[in-house]
Amino acid sequence: MDAGFVATVALVYAMSRRRPRIVRRCWVHTILRKRLQWGEYHVLVQELRLDGVLFQQYFRMSKDAFDELFGKVGPLIAKADTRMRLSIGPAERLAICLRYLATGDSYRTIAFSYRVGHATVAVIVKEVAGAIWTALVEETMPVPQTEDWRAIAAGFQERWNFPNCVGAIDGKHVVIQAPANSGSLYFNYKSTHSLVLLAVVDAQYLFRVVDVGGFGRSSDGGSLRNSAFGEGLRDGSLQLPPDTVIPGAERLGLLPHVFVGDEAFPLLDNLLRPFPGRQLTRERRLFNYRLSRARLVVECAFGILSSQWRMFRRVITTSPEVTELCVKATCVLHNFLRRKTIGRSSRTPVIPVVAESSDEAPTLRDAPMMGSNNATRRSIQLRETFCSYLNEEGVVSWQHKVV
């Protein structure tokens, strides 16, 4: 048989099996063409600017905060107009992203409201979330230096009566839809799929260090071990202040600056965890209470975060990459907004929580305990020393009424 004939038959067969080309009926859908007249940003959002309370409820931030944020992020997200079409303005792009973070609604829901394509919403959320992190991280979450750690320790001593504490650490699971072909990487102990948010929080409920992207199968201790922060904690590169003598407790000698965590974390020279077990002496129970009281700030910070940004109350259906960008964006937005309230009131701002349906349970969940905790003799002795201080020189009048 002629080789040319065979090649021709093969080519015709291959072309016949190609998927027929989809003919686009229109370049832009008729409904989307009316975005400037009837889109949510150009109608509802402009009306909301006349009512500060409703604007706050819609975007989870005030008009002044929105405008200030736009001034920082706008240049990073602006697009140029082309001969084919006008670009979506940076203010509208910011509004779309904030609306997604504030509600967790699907891309299609937001696309219908703003009269843009759902693929456009997906691109906007990814780009703007990344731009928010880039624009705010140096201002609201800079890498702590030695003097910053000292200021944090002074805050914990003043507000929470815990000496030499440079932060409360904890991890939370951000529930996501199972990524394709991910196996059990993201499958956690509560039978959901998640990314782990590991955070260090100061006495003012501000995030100082965050690590996002740990697999859901990891414990708090495992996430710490695999993070850049955990590596810095082990090799001593965090620039923590040198060991100091606690005023009034010179007998104890030099004590290190420490982070406080729950039972899921290992006991290290610079990381304290509660005494394990139930049959504890009164002194150890008092130590556990005082440590847990200081550690509570990180739990409160996670609570404020999930109440402010309701995407955490949904199962997030975006890719892990986009989810990581969105989580980091909400963390710097939390600090950006929280810094405006510090000094205005000594109380933690209470955000009204609307009753949620049973199928929208909060998706920030505790991470599990790690499998083992092999502490050194020095770490064990340091915990005993802190326990001694909190039961003697560092005692507060009301602690014996609680425990």
Automatic annotation (TrEMBL):
The keyword Hydrolase applies. The keyword Cytoplasm does not apply. Signal peptide: none annotated. InterPro entries: HARBI1-like, HARBI1_dom. Its main location: nucleus. It comes from the Eukaryota. GO terms for molecular function: hydrolase activity; metal ion binding; nuclease activity. Its cofactor is a divalent metal cation. One of its GO terms (cellular component) is nucleus. Keywords: Hydrolase, Metal-binding, Nuclease, Nucleus. It is found in: Nucleus. Residues 169-335 form the DDE Tnp4 domain. Belongs to the HARBI1 family. This is Protein ANTAGONIST OF LIKE HETEROCHROMATIN PROTEIN 1-like. It comes from Gymnodraco acuticeps. The lineage of its organism: Eukaryota, Metazoa, Chordata, Craniata, Vertebrata. The gene is LOC117544191.
